[in-house]
Structure formats: C-alpha cells, structure tokens
Amino acid sequence: MTRSKKTTQAAALSAAAPAMDEGRDETGRWRRRVANIFISVVAAMIAVQLYALYSTNGLPTASTIFAPPNASSNISMTDVAASLSTGFDEFYATYVQPLRDMALDGVAHAAEEGSRVGHQLRGRSARAKHPVVLIPGFTSSGLELWEGHGCLKRHFRQRLWGSAEMAKSFLADSECWRRHLMLHPRTGMDPENVRVRAAQGFGAADNFVGAYWVWSKIIENLADVGYDGSTMTMMSYDWRLGFEHLESRDGYLTKLKHAIEGHRSATGEKVVVVSHSMGGLLYYYFLQWVVADVKAGGGGGGRDWIETNVQAFVNIAGPMLGVPKAIPAVLSGELGDTAALLPQLGDLLERYFGRRWRRNLWMTWGSLFGMLPKGGDAIWGVGADVRDEEDSSGGDDAEANGAHASTTRPLVPAIVWHNGTDEICPAATPTTEAPTNEDPLGLSALDIHPSRAWSEERAIEYLLRNDRGGSSSIYSFDSKKGWKTRASSVDKRKHWHDPIATKLPSAPSLKIYCLYGVGIQTERSYYYKVSCDKVGGASGGDMDRACPRENEDETQCGNIPDTNDDDPPEAPFFIDTSAKDDSKDIRSGVRFSDGDATVPLLSLGYMCQKWAQPRNPHNPSGINVYTRERRHEALMSLSDPGRAGPMAGEHVDILGNVGVIEDVVRIATGFEVERVNEDIIVSDLKRIVQAVDEHYLGGSSGVSV
C-alpha cells in the first residue's frame, strides 16, 4: 500500500471519527446488530450504483434517485439489477477493500501477544483444562447453498449469508436471494428443491464479513492458553429454524450432545459451554431436551447427564426472557432502527427491502418466534424497567419508592395503537375470530381494546394465530400452563424455550455465568398505527414475483414458483414514528429501557437473579449462578474501526470486552476462577427484580402458586 493511499485512508477515518462518536453517544444503533449493518451496507451499495446509473444525465437529485423510474424511461429493473451486479466488484475494490485491509492491519497490531488477556494469563500459568463448546447467536453463523434454483445454482456451497458474496447475490437478484433464505411458509422447514445449511468449523462464526469479528477474539485468547480444534468446538447452526426443527431437520441437539460427550470422554474433564445471544436460549432448550425421556421428544440423557458432562454454562448477552424487537419484526416487518431512518433512505429500503418483503421472509423463521418475550404480563407488563414521568424526579425517596410503584400503576403495554379504536377501519368489525380468506391479515382479529393497547400476552397471541411456518405448533408462551405440565408429557417440549415455565435440571455442581452489557437504551415497546388504505393487500409489482417478467424462462430463473398466493399482502399497520415523549424515553414510536442495544436488562438479568435466590423453585438443585454486568463504555480505535472498543457492553461488541474475555478464559482454565465466582451489578437490576416480584401478578413466582 502506497504512502499516499495510507494517508488518504487515515484522513478519511479521522474525518469519520466525530460522526461515529456522535452516533455512538446517542444510540450507536448502526452497529448494534449484525442484521442492521447488513441492511445499511446493502442500502449504501444500491445508492452508489444508482448514482452511477443515473449520472450520465447529470448530477442526480434526491427525487431522481429515490423515485421509481417512470413509464417513459428505458431503464428496467433488469437493467438496474445488471448494473448492480456488474458494478459490485468495482465498488468493493474501491470502497470496501481498502478499509478492510486497514482494519486487518489494525487487528494484527491489536492482536500482538502482549496485549491479549489470554497471553497475559498464560504468563501466570493458566493452561487449557475444560474443553470448550461455543454456540453462536442469531445471524452469526454463515449459511451455505447446497441445493437451489437456476438463479443461484452457480453459488453451490457458497455463502448466501455471512460473506461479501451474500451482498453480491442479493444485489444481482434480491427476490431470488429472499426465496432461498425463506423457509417453507407452512412448515418452517426447507422449501421444495432448496437446501441452505450452516457453515461448519470456527470459520462459520469467527468473522461475519471480512474483518467484522464476532467470535475471533475469544477464540484467539483461548488459543493463547493452549486451546485448539481438539479441545474446542464451534457448534454453528441454521439460526432461521425453530429450536424443535433444528433437531428434526439437522439433528443439531443430538450432535451437540455427542460433541459434549466426546470432549468429556477424550479429556476426562467436564465441558464449559459458552453461548452468545440466541445461542443462550438454544442451550437452555437443550438443557431441557437432553434430560427428557425419548418418549417425550427428549434426548434421553437421563437426570444426571448435565452433572456428569458439563462444568459451566457461560451465557453471554443471552435473551433468556426473549427480545421485544421480535414483535415488530414478525408483526409488520419492521425494527425500530429501520423505522426511524431518514425518510429518503427509508424510501430506498422500502423499494428494495420493503416491509412486506421483510415480513414475509421473517415470518417463516421459527427462531424469531422463539425469541418473542417470555413470562407474559407478570414479567413485562409490570414496567419496573421503564421510566415514567413520576420516576424522573429523582430525590432521596426515588429508589425506596420505586420497588413499590409498580404494584399499583397500570400494566405497561407491548403495543399502543395510536389512532384509536374508532378510527381503525370501520368496515372491519372487531372480533376475536381467526383470520379468514376475506380477511387474510386478521385485521378483524386485532380486537383493539378501548384503551388502545395490546398487552405482551395479547400481542403474542395475535402473532401465533397469524404465524407462517408452523411456529404455533412448536412454541407455547403460556408459562403457567407450562409449569403445571408434567415433564413426561409430549406437550412439555413446547415450553422448553421458556425459563419461566420450566426448572433448571438437577446439576448441583454446575455453575452458570450471566455476562452482559448495560447502559445503552434498548427497544422495549412500540407505538403503532393502522393504515386502512392498505387493507385488502397491495400488488407489490414486479418485486413480488419470483422472476422479472422479461426473463421468465427456466434457464434464467430456474423453477422458482410464482408464490404470490403464499405471500400475504403488506401488513396494514406500521410503527408510528411521530410518537415521542422524552419523559418516558419514547422516540420515533419506540419506548426504550436499559439494556445492551438489542436485549433489555429485564431479559438479560431477571432469571439469573431468580435462579441465584435460595430455595427458588426454578433452581431446585441449588446451581450456583453469577451475574456479571459490564457498563458500556465506547472507546473508538483506528486499529478496530467501527467497533466500540475493549470496554464495550453492546450486544455483539461485548464479545471483544476484555473483562468478558478474561472471565471466559478463567472459567475454561479454572485459573483463579474464584475471581469470577461473584456478582458484578452496576445497573438497577436488583430493584427491578424486587418490583416485578412484589407486583400482584407475582413475577416468575406467580406461575408456581
């Protein structure tokens, strides 16, 4: 790399630094979840290529770029797709590769042995002891194409997710890409003649795209103390599937069981399982599955399997009680992050990655239903973790009164309908009936109460009644029913994903560590509006077709069926971005609470604190549980551009937090592990737990009475 090129890149990064700091100080949402980064990158690529396409007619205006081509234009969507595909290599070489090279240089510098926690602990005699199994989170594992239709056959065994090739295939034919990432709309399994599978090995989840690390820092630090492929395993999986479907299609739970048993047998040591994000929920499901009888759909390991094989469960940023942002994702194809984008960028996203497009994709992913909030109104409705006007006054009595305020105030809704019952499509008579052919969206089943609010339970009930992909057959969110269902019943497995409805298995020597970040505002609930002009569906145009009209032959498009009949019309409701109330932390139609930018504190920490309580019915064998919070502190570094630094508490970047890495290495090696066997609570968690439990609904204890 020439000196002038390095100087130019350094200047560009320096110029970008204030903007990145400002965005990070406010919310940092552009880098808070991998999926949103992907959306933003694709949007930027499309914008650049559209600029190149239109620049022959002079400098484009906003209206030129963001308005669809008019009928008199000679430019077709096929031309646009061809331009995007042809120009991708040039775009990547010009804009992406230089930053990637610089980032790799920086990572190499930051990875010098003396600066790594693992190397420092090795110098103090820490050595590999317990085998380690890593379980990645939602969207973290690369997905490869093993069988597909004509438009993607040339991508055999290439990644459709988790590589630069992913963006290239998306830009070339976004509808074809979506059809291959979509699961069957009624079974939640593979569509006909399509097989997409998780990549395997450490490379499946060490880095997402290029130098955007996920697990690589933890892997490298464990390698410093002697771990390698013989003592450490990455258990990647197809994160789109519902948990039960992971076993029935891929045998994933059986393979995880065998991997743990294999390490135990080979080394004579119990295994340390380290999970991140949804991987923590998946492993909790596994804990229920592995001890359950085969007749009940379990793994048949027996009551003592965990005690015999597992040393510790290290749960990093695990959403043990679900994620509220899963609700708008499957309800209307929205995230608070995308809904709040600038209008022009929002228009661009809607054209190429629109709400209907997203919703009909995401609704087939059983994993998103598995991440819906758990525990119902007894947990989420109390509102102990959200701010009201009366909470903002502070003063000496604020903390003392806070624990009792939630016992009397109204339940906090999951969704507030902002335009009121009388304004919601008079032709649709409120009813509790299921959707019909005349009402495919279930609009009549909205049944919006005069309070204009949906509780957590009501929102989830609606989603399960309108699900695509069979999620309602593999999940139940009735925690009380789950608690009362016998462990030997085949119906119990619908509740294995829910820590409120189930008990930790008997494993008195097991240790559980909950490691997560706090101090970042995180989506908690939403404000919606109904758009009556969209009732009855939208045509969607050519973007809803499997192939462009002018290319409808088998050689160009393969045998992808035109499945418009399986694609519900756009949802006639959307996040109302005009909703704003600073006294309640409401902005752009989203109410926020403390968390790690993806998972609220209530989900990160509540169950960990409950499990740790003496004689708690959810932890009958008295497993030791430790909660170790890290307050988010963003420290920008040119050696790791676009990331929050070594003190980050953000949902993904916490995998590079030096304190978290040190905890993982100590737990795995057993070196001075007593330093990890204590709580670090820097948030308001204890007050929140007390307030939830003192509410008349009873919190987690309410299911067991």
TrEMBL record:
Compositional bias (Acidic residues): 387-399
Location of region: Disordered: 1-26, 386-405, 548-578
The UniProt record lists the keyword Metal-binding: no
Keyword Transmembrane in record: yes
Stretches that traverse the bilayer: 34-54
Low complexity biased stretches: 10-19
Keywords noted in UniProt: Membrane, Transmembrane, Transmembrane helix
InterPro entries membership: AB_hydrolase_fold, LACT/PDAT_acylTrfase
Protein's UniProt name: Phospholipid:diacylglycerol acyltransferase
Organism: Stephanodiscus triporus
Phylogenetic placement of the source organism: Eukaryota, Sar, Stramenopiles, Ochrophyta, Bacillariophyta
